[in-house]
Write a structure and sequence with these properties.
Strand content: 5-15%
Largest sheet: 4 strands, mixed
Structural class: alpha+beta
Distance between the termini: 50 Å
Number of strands: 8
Number of helices: 20
Radius of gyration: 21 Å
Strand order of the largest sheet: 4-3-5-6
Helix content: 40-55%
Shape: globular
């Protein structure tokens, strides 16, 4: 059986009854985490620009936005995907380097509402979407990641898989959906050089394109039957090396969603191992930041490829600067959403601390990546005393998990200034089986900009 056929068969065969209780409960945590990021990001200027542009282009009212408006299901997927990615607090899978929630959940929610489907179908489709994009991401990582934004490229397959399951496509139709998803997969890292808004377009189009691919397949629109493994397919065209075995190894016997990690800092995940180390050292040894002479970071090469930016010129660029992020932790003790602002960006103490940060990659950490996202930090004081701490798994990884309490607190901090019934929203998600999709949290829209949407 061809590789793409095996994925399609998996999508067709998996049902809600096949999901263990812990997988169902964990999926609710993923939904809660996505929802908080989406609410926090819905009013950001790039998301507003995208929403206004799509509204100008029109579309049947099929799905509800968290800002209260209604639009087409594909447009809703696109807007929610951009909104949930922009604050840099969406979930992460280290093996594939994919933020699955931001592409999979908006696609699944939009299709569910438009077709009046059940919560059980929603949860099943999310599990499937995560499984598919994570496996494809693992197959092409790390070589693919140098030029291509995995969440955008591999995420397109995840969105298509979730939508295909919800639309009840048969095996051959799913092959076509994946074929047309893969031929649209795109998203280049060049945006990072300018701190451009394109990163939000990446996830938005991934979710949109996945939905489009599935809807077209339902109409009989065909796609490449070997989009992954073909001679001019995804693997050979977009990676220097790949491992097809990653696609099928344990497929149907395990649930990749359980490998999902969550972010507790509002910055690129590659900055988090170093930030965790600095945070630990500052607290454990009661270090006075004014006494710091140097901060030495040893980590894996991708940290340098993506976040070695000693002079970020925007708030967004600061989130992709390991120098800024560790300096923020050293001086402020936190790096949450509200900590990234114009005041901290231009803070002279932070800028001075950034000049003391040195970053280098080591073979040990690079070889262990992406299974481990490790770092070792040495803080040297003016009196020449030094303190070291190393981690292999930043907080929020499955091996170093965030507690339910931490996840709820994260959600509360993201949405408290925008919605009035925060505790009820948490209860709704953790008891989501008892709520019809039409009456679910998206329909009861939050307070946006102080006004009821």
């Amino acid at each position: 059986m061809a590789l793409t056929d095996k994925i399609s068969e998996y999508i067709v065969n998996l049902d809600y009854q096949d999901l263990p209780k812990d997988v169902i409960e964990f999926t609710k945590v993923c939904i809660l985490d996505w929802y908080g990021s989406a609410i926090a990001g819905i009013d950001e200027p790039p998301v507003v620009a995208l929403k206004e542009t799509l509204f100008e282009m029109g579309g049947n009212e099929q799905a509800t936005l968290i800002s209260g408006e209604r639009t087409s299901l594909a447009n809703a997927a696109m807007i929610h995907s951009a909104a949930s990615h922009i604050v840099e607090l969406d979930d992460i899978h280290k093996g594939s380097i994919i933020h699955a929630a931001t592409v999979v959940i908006p696609a699944a929610l939009s299709v569910c509402e438009a077709y009046d489907l059940s919560i059980e179908e929603l949860i099943t489709s999310i599990v499937i979407g995560y499984e598919v994009c994570y496996r494809i991401g693992e197959a092409v990582t790390p070589s693919h990641y140098y030029y291509w934004h995995n969440t955008a490229t591999c995420g397109t397959f995840g969105a298509a898989a979730a939508a295909a399951k919800l639309l009840g496509l048969n095996k051959q139709q799913i092959v076509h959906a994946l074929g047309n998803a893969g031929t649209q997969a795109a998203g280049l890292w060049e945006f990072i050089e300018d701190g451009a808004n394109s990163k939000q377009l990446h996830t938005a189009k991934a979710s949109y394109n996945g939905v489009l691919a599935a809807l077209l397949a339902k109409k009989g629109f065909t796609g490449a039957s070997k989009i992954l493994e073909g001679d001019r397919g995804f693997f050979k065209a977009m990676s220097d090396s790949y491992n097809e075995q990653k696609i099928v190894e344990g497929l149907g016997e395990q649930f990749k969603i359980m490998e999902n990690g969550f972010k507790l800092y509002a910055s690129c995940r590659h900055t988090h191992p170093s930030m965790d180390c600095v945070h630990t050292l500052m607290n454990k040894h009661s270090i006075d930041s004014t006494e710091i002479e140097k901060i030495l970071i040893e980590t894996y090469q991708t940290v340098l490829d993506i976040t070695d930016n000693p002079k970020p010129r925007s708030i967004y660029a600061a989130k992709f600067s390991v120098q800024f992020c560790v300096s923020l932790i050293a001086l402020k003790g936190s790096a949450f959403l509200q900590d990234f602002n114009e005041r901290t960006l231009n803070n002279s103490e932070i800028r001075e601390m950034m000049n003391k940060v040195r970053v280098a990659s080591t073979k040990e950490f690079t070889d262990a990546y992406p299974e481990q996202w490790g770092a070792k930090v040495t803080i040297v004081l003016r009196n020449k005393e030094s303190y070291r701490f190393a981690t292999e798994f930043p907080k929020g990884d499955p091996e170093n998990p965030a507690s339910k309490k931490q996840m709820v607190e994260k959600f509360q901090s993201l949405v408290a200034h925008k919605i009035t019934d925060v505790d009820q929203r948490v209860d709704d998600i953790y008891n989501i089986e008892n709520v019809k999709i039409k009456d679910w949290l998206l329909v009861n829209s939050p307070i946006v900009n102080g006004n009821e949407a």
